[in-house]
Amino acid sequence: MKTYILINTNQPNDPILGIYDSELLAEKRKFYFQSVYKNDELKIVTKHMEYIDRE
């Protein structure tokens, strides 16, 4: 499973703004957060994660 992590590179103590399973959703949230953090650089990074089925 591929996840998209939206990070703010100008906040080293708390950089993660959200974790999404859709690139489109991550892009939409990045567009929104650009209006909140006007001078900060936002970046989307991808991470492959394993799905673990818990019974």
Task: Characterize the structure shown.
The protein is of the alpha+beta class and about 55 residues long. The mean pLDDT is about 85. It is elongated, with a radius of gyration of 13 Å. The protein contains one helix and three strands, in the order E-E-H-E.
Short summary:
By secondary structure, the protein is of the alpha+beta class. The chain is 25% helix and 35% strand. The chain has one helix spanning 23-36, and strands at 2-8, 16-20, 42-48.
How is the topology of this model organized?
Blueprint: E1 2-8, E2 16-20, H1 23-36, E3 42-48
Antiparallel strand pairs: 1-2, 1-3
Mean pLDDT figure: 87
Given helix and strand content, the structural type is alpha+beta
Report the end-to-end length measured between terminal Cα atoms: 19 Å
What is the N-to-C succession of helices and strands? EEHE
- Helix percent band: 25-40%
* Percentage of residues in strands: 25-35%
How many whole angstroms does the radius of gyration measure?
13 Å
| Structure annotation, total helices | 1
Strand order of the largest sheet: 2-1-3
User: Could you give a short account of the major beta sheet?
Assistant: 3 strands, antiparallel
Q: Which residues sit in consecutive blocks of at least 5 with pLDDT less than 50?
A: none
Broad shape:
elongated
Number of strands: 3
Which properties best describe this structure?
55 residues, 3-stranded antiparallel β-sheet
